[in-house]
Every structure is written in C-alpha cells, then in structure tokens.
Design a protein that fits this description.
Largest sheet of chain A: 5 strands, mixed
Largest sheet of chain B: 2 strands, antiparallel
Shape of chain B: extended
Shape of chain A: globular
CATH topology of one domain in chain A: MetI-like fold
Oligomer: heterodimer
Strand content of chain B: under 5%
Strand order of the largest sheet of chain A: 6-5-7-4-8
Helix content of chain A: 55-70%
CATH class of one domain in chain A: Mainly Alpha
Number of strands of chain A: 12
C-alpha cells in the first residue's frame, strides 16, 4: 500500500481488468465462492446420505445410555451416558499424556546430556539408543512392548520382583507401591502450606540480611530444616489427634481377649493338625509369636529344598508348611480403601500373615464379617459402629482404634493368585506409557543436546572466570540460555506425544479415540464423534502450546 | 583430574620416575564433598552387584542343532565355553584393570604412549568415569550375549511347521521359521502368485531409472543432457507402476484388497509424498501469500447470511440446541433460543468468521484457508484423519460413488502429509533472502515467473532434506493403516502371529518388522544427511 502514494496518476490509468490489486481481490472472491460451493456440496451429500442411511444429526446422543464397559479410568458404569464415556476417554488421554510428558522430559534430558558426556562409552550408548528408536515406527514399538514383552511376562503367581523391591511385574500389568491419603491428609496439607510460607519468609529475611551485612548465611540449610520441622510436627499432630478415625472390629467368637492381634493369629495355627503330621510337640509349643511361625516356615522351606535335592520324600514337610501357611488373619473391607490398607500394614508390621477380602461396599464386607468369613472388619469409625449395631450380639465385637498417619503406604503383597494392594498399572497403560516415553525421549534427547551445544563455550568460560561453581554455572548461565533454544521444538514434541497417545486404540487402552470408536459403532453418530475428536485434540494442543508459549516468553531474550 | 592435568603440564621434564600422589588425587576428586563420597559408594555397590550377577550368569541357551537330545555337540561346547559368565566377566575386569594401570602409570610418568591418552580422555575420565565404564562395558557385553543366545545360539531356523512343532519346547531361543515361511506374505501380502512378476517388473523399472539417474547425475556422462527427461520418467513411472500392479487393459486385475505387506507400505508412503507435494506447495504459497486482501470482508459475510436466510428461511420458531460440553456432567448443554436470538447467533457466527479473517489476516482469504487447513490437520492425530477418510468420505460423497478402502486411506494420508509438507516448504521459502524477490521484480518478472524461475528452485533445493525426513516419518506412519484394516507390513505381522502353525511368536515377528522399518528408515536418514552436505544446506 505504501507504494501507491508516489504516482497515483500513473496507476489511475491502468484499466480495471489489469490492475493486480483488483484481480487479486476478484481471485480471492472466486476462491471463496468455490470453497463455499464445495462445502455446500459436501453438506448436501451428507444430508442426502443421512436420509437414506438413517444417520442422525445433532448431539443429543451424548445424553443416552452407553451400555458398554470401559476397562479403566475415572468412575464409570455401563449405565452412564455416551458423553460420560467420552469424558472418561479424554481423562485417560490427559493422564497418559501428562505422565508421558514428565517422564519424556526426564529421560530425554538424561539422554541428551549423556550424548554430550566426555565418557566415550556413555555417549555411544546414548547415540545408539537414539538411532535405533528414532527409526522404528511408534506403533511397531507399542506392539512389541505390549504383545512381546508385557503379555509375555510370567503369570501372577510367578510375578517378577526386580531387586526384591515391592514392584510386581506380571501378565496383568505392573503393581507399584502407592501413597493413600487418609482422613488426616487435608490437615497435614495445611501444615505443608504453612511450612512453605515459613520457608519463603525465612528466605526473604535472610537474603535481606545478606545484602545488608554482606555476610553469607546458610539459607538452604535453614529452609530445609524449618520445612522438615514444621511438616514433621504436622505429621505427628495429625496422627495423634485424628487417629480415632480408623478402626478395626475384631470378632470374639473364638477368642477370649483381644489384647493383641498376635494372640488371635497364634490361635489360628492349627496345633492338632501339626501334631497329626508327627511334628515334635516341644517345637509346636515353642511357637509363641508370629515371628516364630515365620521362622519355622523358612526352616521348613529350606529342609524341603534340601530333601528335594537329595531325592527324599517331602510330602510330610510340605504338608506341615501348608498348615503353617494356612494360619492367617482375614480382613474384610472396601476394595482399595484406606481402612484395608491401614489394617493390612498394621498386621504385617507384627509379621502376621494377612488375607484380604475386598468388597465394593462396607455393607457387603459387613455381611461377610457377620457370616464368619473373616476375623477383622476394617473401615472408618462411624462405618464400623453402624455395622456393629446390626450384628446379633454387638457386645461380642470390639472396635479397636488404630493410629493412622496422613498418608498410608499402600504396599502390594502377593496373595494366592493375585497381588493385593498397591497401585496397579494395566498392561495396556504400561505399554502405552512406556512406548510413548521411549519413542519421544529419543527426539527430546536430540533437542536437549542441540540446546546445550547452542550455548557458546565462551559463556561457560566466562562463568568459570567469574568464580562461579559448576552448579551455579549450569543453573545460572548455561540452562537459561539453552532453554531458549530447547523450548520451541520441545513444545512440538509434547504435542506429538499427546497426539500419538491416540495409538492406544491399537492395544485397546480406552483413550479418547478408542472410546470414541466404540461410541461410533454403538450409536452410529460418526460425524459427531469425529467432531468431538477434532475439538478435543485441538483444545489439548492449543492449551499445551499456549502454556509453553507463555513460558517461552518468560525465558526469551528481551530485545531492544 | 586436577592432579592429572597438572602433572601433564609439567611433563616438560619427562622422566621415567613414577610421581603421582594417589591419596592426594582421591582427596581432590572424591573426598572433597560428602555427595561425591556417597555417589562413589553407590557406584562401587552398583558395580559389585552387576559383576556378581554376570559372574554367575546362567549358560546361554543352545538350540536342538547345537545340543541334540541334550547332548552338546563340540561346536555347542565351544560356544558354552566362550560365553561362560565367569570367563567373560573375568576378561572384562582384567581388560579394565589393564587399561586402568596403563593410564595410572602413564599419568605418573607424564608420558602417554599409544592409546593411553585416548583411554584417559574418553574412558577413564576420573574415578567416576572409570566406574561407569566398567559397569557399562559389562552390561553391554552381557546384553549382546543375551541377544545372541536368543537370536542365534538358541534359535531354531527350520521353516517346516512340523519340525518346529516337535522342537518348539526344547528350543530356548527364537523360532525364526515364522519369518522364513512367510516371506511372501511379508513382502507382497496376498498378491496372486502367478502375478508376482508384475512386482518384479516394477522393481526393475525403479532400479533401471535409479541406475540411469546415478549415471546422469554423478559423472560427466553423455546422459547429462537427459536429466530433464529422467525427471519426467520418474514422475511417469509412479502411475505406470500402479497401473501395472493393478492390471493394464487386457491383463487380469489384482484388486487392491490383495495388495499388502511391504509392497503396500512402500506404495502408500511414495504416493503419499508425491501426490501431497503439489498440494503442500500450494498451501505453503497460500500461507505466505501477501496479496492485498478483500476489503470490508465482513460485508460479504453479511451478504452470505442473507443468502442463507433466503434459502433456509429466517428462523420463525424457537430452537432447542444440544451443545456438547464435555467438561460437565451430563456432558451436554441444552439451550432453547427464541427465533430472534437464534438468528442473532447465526449472524454472529457467520459474520464473525469473515470479520476475524478481515481483522487478523487483512482479509486475505487464500491465507485464511491455508492457515485453517494446515493448523487443523496438524492439530489432530493421523489416526483420526484416517478414520475421517475411512468413515466420513463415503458419507460426504454422492451415494452412487464408491471408493475402495485403499483409495480412501490413501486420500487420508495425502491430506495429512500435505499439511506437514506445506510447513516444510514454507520453511524453505522463508529462508530465501528478500533480495532475491526484489531482484526478480527488478528484472521485470511477473509474480508467477519470479516464483517459478527464481524463488522455488532455490527454496526447494533447501527443503529436500526436510522432505526426505518427512518421507521417513510418513514411511513409519503408514504402519497406522493397519488399524483401519489395510494389510500393510505391520498388519501382516499380526496375521502371521495368529496362524495356527506359528501361534505365540510375537517376539520374533515384531522384532523382524521393527528391523525392516529400521533398515529402510536408517538408510534413508543417512542418505538425507549426505544429501544435506552435498547440497550445502545451512552453509550460507
């Protein structure tokens, strides 16, 4: 437009049909008409086809009952609506993408730094990893991980436990320890917030003092100590005052007194059956505590393996071992509830063998308890009081208060043909997460490497010349500059990861696309479901890139 | 390390005396910080665990041919001896110690003979580096040993299903027969056996053209003049080959249902890139377009609105809208609007789109369409584009048009690839200095001429490596068509694993498929890097 001003006269003489600007506008209008006509044609076809094939228009199907199950995700039943089903899919997509992005960043950074390592071996290993993973399709990697690795793991009872850690790998997925928040958790969280405020205040005060006096002070140590003190005090206070919220009820049918769970457990050891197998009576009498039982079990197992090696008969020994293993306390409660986790961990701490009987409601668990299927009912105080009132002889059942900390460690433990407790990752989820992280981290590693290489050597040398320590050099000089180069391409890798999570459909993990596919088949609303796909992924992509653009602006070089 | 480099500096006075204060060295590198001590203890512990595990590693598995009926053959014995865990671990530890001693002695004598300097710089970089090297070498050697044990020593290579059935339980490693017995499926799918010559003929055409091109481009041969002809031949060869595979007139047609395996993978990726190239180029030019936009664009929107009302009628009854809102429960928002409110909503929607094109993009409609298309396709996963092509294409076309599944999926791949190609080409266009545009204008070339003769030849040369990269990723992405039911290489693998003779051989099959994809992708990426150097990209 700026070019128009000098010689208006000359331009005025150009006839309309040769004026580039007019032609451009006309061309664009023609394009507009063509595109609109094309869209109109497609919509017209759709309406015609919809009439003949009985396709429906509108989104009201989101409110009709889905009538299919989803294997994992947030709370959902087959009686819920299609809309709810799609929402479960979206949450699953977000969950796997979020975890994937965090793990990819970690692994990618480690690999990127490893590629730059001065150790020849380490850098070669990282290079080979990257070159192998980058050139294999993600879907093939996913299939390999799912069908050829995870589904080929041993059955549940032969679960692999790497290094004896409480991690169980088997065909049905991966079970890890988890932390369960209990009733006291919100109170403790308030303490954590308080501690953070205190740390910030201390940090500011000490920084000011440093500036005023010029004397360095140990800010970090003070902050850490103050933080730990406050949250430790909070932990103690919460456990002490909110402990009466979790209870266990103990059946008194077979036992006179409930001093201790150990006594109940010891009564469960079948002395007569042991005597029948010909075990030494003195040995049986010597069994006083659960630990004794455990030790004897270990001895018997050792004897059995020795006898096996010598080719002797082991039937007597193994029947004795079975009798000892039968001795256990059964706990009834609501599946994956804090009560059951707490009860099991309390009992295991006393080396008492525990069997857990899960139900999905406290009423069902209470029925099991009333019919004598289990010795202990675990739940909150009010639940147990209500259940006790329903029993034939309420006085024969005691409610025992147990201390409960704000967070309970939910440790998995093998129990027969299953693994009890813990956080379970399904095989599909584990394969998808592992595949996405392994694949994307190879690309992320290259980005991190390029970012670090982009910071010129002079910057590091200058930092050293100023006397900064290695940590300060990385934290204050190299990383902030590398970040600028790293963030834009890393954003597109995060977006790729989120979009690639849609490959879940190939291994039947119920993400948005997999659930949407089922909805499509069940309801026939194909166009609408695909619109939901597009809208959801565009929203996800836009939010991720908006967040990272904001962050990028924060770290970007401020020019002029 | 500080001491090492320090002693090296004073190596002017080279003597054969050993002077290295080892306690001082450790004081400087390990014992100067509590974290380093903890880290050192952890590393020593890790090394001890690794070495103990490898020292007592189980012997490798031997297949039936190396140990028939449990009796190990001499060759089997030799393998068992060479891969013995204790022997291998001892060799590694001894070699590591020899290297360590060599480095320490060299450091003490300030003299670095042979490879000791390299060892010090790259494997024995301080106490931590040396420990990492030991653990790394041990792990790598035993990983290779495990891989060999599975894939070679313990493997069964017979392709006879009956023999495999007998030996399956005594074979500790891979059963590669599943690959050997299905080579035809993997390479061409269910292509009729008597028509396979067409695949060979196609391969022959490609190889002939490749040989001619090599001659024409690499040497100062008389073929140099035919370069243009060769380019046209390459472009023509694609439809010719597809036609040949499908069946020329007078030949038996091979329905696309029977195309499969690696053949289908290659066809999909080549057609995807070649056909999407012109579309991508147009989109890139559209997105870069700087022509003057249509002024007062919102008025056209208003006009369109009146046309719409003229055709569909002005809303006269209250309307109930079901708007999907996935973030609430129930996930739908039901609003009933009065006719006026509904009309207002329509007006805001239609005029709003036109107004925002006018406001944000200066009324440039071409640019608006290009941006909308590129960003929408890039914002959604390929699999949804494939679903769209497979499910929506038939719905949105006239009902008497029938397109086969392969064509539908190919359209999806082309639409997807075009958006990414457009962005690559745009990168090339942006890299051309402004002076080139101005120079073209100055010599009086029209817009189209300057694009065709000046800008595009340079820009496309710049983006060739990026396009090869995109071809690689498209080659990998074609594996997704297995989800929508095409029998590509990956789907064939799924089919093979389900054959009654080869049930449960997922490891072998998927490892093989991964290897095929890897070989081709890796070769192409190396070629692309060479091309990049040859074309001098990034050397402005």
């Amino acid at each position: 437009m700026a070019t128009t001003s000098p010689n208006l006269k000359a331009e005025a003489r150009i006839p309309l049909w040769r004026d580039v600007r007019v032609l451009a506008v006309i061309g664009q209008l023609i394009a507009l008409v063509l595109v609109l006509a094309g869209i109109g044609w497609l919509v017209n076809n759709f309406l015609e086809n919809a009439e003949t094939q009985g396709l429906k228009i509108g989104f009201d199907f989101l409110n009709t009952t889905a009538a299919f199950d989803i294997s994992e995700g947030i709370d959902y039943q087959a009686t819920d609506t299609f809309g709810r089903a799609l929402w479960v899919g979206i949450v699953n997509t977000i969950r796997v993408s979020f975890l994937g992005i965090i793990l990819t960043t970690l692994l990618g950074t480690i690999l990127g730094i490893a590629r730059l390592s001065s150790n020849w071996l380490i850098s070669k290993i990282a290079t080979i990893y990257i070159e192998i993973i980058r050139n294999v399709p993600l879907l093939v990697l996913l299939f390999f991980l799912y069908f050829a690795v995870i589904l080929k793991l041993p059955a549940v009872k032969d679960s692999i436990q790497p290094f004896g850690l409480p991690i169980f790998l088997n065909q049905r997925g991966i079970t890890l320890s988890g932390l369960e928040p209990t009733v006291g958790f919100p109170v403790w969280l308030a303490f954590v917030v308080l501690a953070l405020i205190l740390v910030m205040a201390l940090w500011t005060i000490q920084s000011r003092a440093e500036e005023r006096t010029g004397q360095p002070s140990n800010k970090l140590a003070t902050a850490v100590v103050a933080f730990l003190l406050v949250i430790g005090a909070g932990w103690y206070v919460t456990s002490a005052f909110i402990s009466d919220q979790a209870f266990m009820a103990v059946a008194s049918r077979n036992i006179d007194r409930y001093e201790d769970f150990e006594a109940i457990y010891m009564l469960r050891v079948d002395d007569d059956a042991l005597k029948d197998t010909g075990m030494n009576a003195q040995l049986i009498d010597s069994l006083k505590t659960p630990e004794d039982v455990l030790n004897l079990q270990g001895e018997l197992a050792q004897q059995i393996s020795q006898a096996d090696a010598a080719g002797e008969d082991t039937s007597v020994l193994s029947s004795q071992l079975d009798i000892l293993k039968d001795a256990s306390i059964t706990v009834c409660g609501v599946e994956n509830s804090v009560g059951i986790v707490n009860a099991a961990s309390q009992l295991r701490r006393k080396s008492i063998q525990v069997k857990v009987k899960d139900e999905n409601s406290i009423a069902k668990a209470g029925k099991n308890y009333a019919s004598g299927d289990c010795d202990v009912l675990a739940g909150t105080g009010s639940e147990l009081a209500a259940e006790r009132a329903l029993l034939d002889d309420p006085q024969a059942h005691e409610i025992i208060s147990t201390p409960i900390s704000p967070l309970v460690v939910n440790t998995p433990a093998p129990a027969g043909f299953n693994i009890q407790g813990g956080n379970k990752l399904s095989p599909e989820f584990a394969a998808l997460l592992a595949g996405l992280v392994i694949y994307t981290s190879a690309f992320a590693a290259e980005i991190v490497r390029a970012g670090i290489l982009a910071v010129s050597k002079g910057q590091s040398e200058a930092a050293r010349a100023l006397g900064l320590t290695e940590g300060q050099r990385l934290r204050l000089i190299v990383l902030p500059q590398a970040m600028r180069v790293i963030i834009p391409p890393m954003t597109s890798q995060y977006l790729n990861l989120t979009k690639n999570s849609s490959l879940a459909v190939a291994i039947a993990f119920p993400d948005l696309v997999a659930v949407g596919n089922t909805v499509m088949n069940q309801s026939g609303f194909a166009v609408q479901v695909i619109l939901v796909f597009i809208a959801s992924y565009l929203t996800l992509s836009l939010s991720i890139s908006a967040f990272l653009n904001w962050y990028n602006k924060k770290v970007a070089l401020v020019e002029r | 390390m500080a001491t090492l480099s320090h002693t090296q500096d004073t190596s002017l006075t080279t003597s054969n005396r050993f002077e290295l204060d080892i306690p001082e060295y450790f004081r400087n590198t390990v014992f100067n910080s509590i974290w380093r001590v903890v880290f050192a203890i952890l590393m020593v512990a890790a090394n001890i665990i690794i070495i103990r595990a490898t020292f007592t590693a189980k012997p490798v598995g031997l297949s039936f041919f190396l140990a028939p009926n449990g009796v190990v053959t001499p060759l089997g014995n030799a393998i068992l001896f060479l891969t013995n865990g204790a022997l291998l671990t001892s060799i590694i530890v001894i070699l590591w110690l020899v290297g360590l001693v060599a480095v320490v002695i060299s450091a003490g004598r300030h003299h670095w003979p042979g490879p000791t300097q390299w060892l010090k710089d790259s494997l024995y970089t301080g106490p931590f580096g040396a420990m990492v090297t030991l653990a790394g070498v041990t792990l790598i050697v035993f990983a290779i040993r495990g891989l060999l044990s599975w894939a070679v020593f313990g493997a069964l290579f017979s392709t006879n299903p009956d023999a495999v059935k007998l030996l399956k339980d005594v074979t500790p490693g891979a059963i590669w027969g599943v690959i050997g017995a299905n080579t035809k499926l993997f390479s061409v799918g269910q292509f009729p056996s008597e028509q396979i010559w067409r695949v060979w003929a196609s391969l022959g055409i490609v190889l002939l053209l490749a040989a001619l091109s090599l001659l024409a481009w690499n040497f100062s041969s008389p073929l140099k003049a035919f370069r243009k002809v060769l380019v046209w031949l390459w472009l023509l060869s694609l439809p010719a080959i597809l036609w040949l595979l499908y069946g020329l007139p007078g030949m038996e047609t091979v329905p696309t249902l029977r195309w499969g395996g690696f053949l289908l993978t290659v066809v999909l990726s080549v057609v995807g890139v070649v056909v999407s190239f012109p579309i991508g180029l147009m989109l890139a030019l559209g997105r870069r377009s700087e022509v003057r936009g249509v002024p007062y664009l919102w008025m056209y929107g208003a006009g369109l609105l009146f046309i719409f009302w003229g055709v569909a009628g002005f809303p006269s009854e209250p309307v109930t809208l079901n708007i999907p809102v996935l973030f609430r429960d129930p996930p739908i928002w039901v609003v009933t609007l009065s006719p006026v409110a509904y009309a207002l909503l329509q007006a805001i929607f239609i005029v709003g789109i036109f107004w925002s094109i006018g406001y944000f993009l200066g009324g440039n409609i071409i640019k608006a369409f290009s941006v909308a298309y590129i960003e929408m396709i890039r914002g959604v996963p390929l699999i949804t584009v494939l679903f769209m092509a497979q499910i929506l294409l038939p719905i949105f076309l006239p009902k008497d048009v029938e397109i086969d599944n392969l064509l539908r999926v190919t359209v999806g791949i082309i639409l997807f690839s075009a958006a990414y190609l457009a962005e690559n080409v745009r990168g090339g266009l942006q890299a051309i200095p402004k002076g080139q545009y101005e120079a073209a204008m100055a010599v009086g070339l029209s817009n189209a001429q300057s694009m065709r003769l000046i800008i595009l030849p340079q820009a496309l040369r710049l983006v060739i490596p990026a396009i090869v990269g995109q071809f690689i990723s498209l080659f990998k992405d074609t594996s997704l068509v297995s989800i929508v039911g095409l029998l590509d290489l990956l789907k064939i693998a799924q089919v093979v694993v389900a054959q009654p003779d080869w049930l449960g051989l997922q490891r072998e099959t998927y490892a093989f498929v991964a290897l095929v994809y890897w070989i081709f992708s890796f070769a192409m990426s190396r070629t692309s890097q060479r091309l990049e150097k040859k074309l001098g990209v990034g050397q402005y």
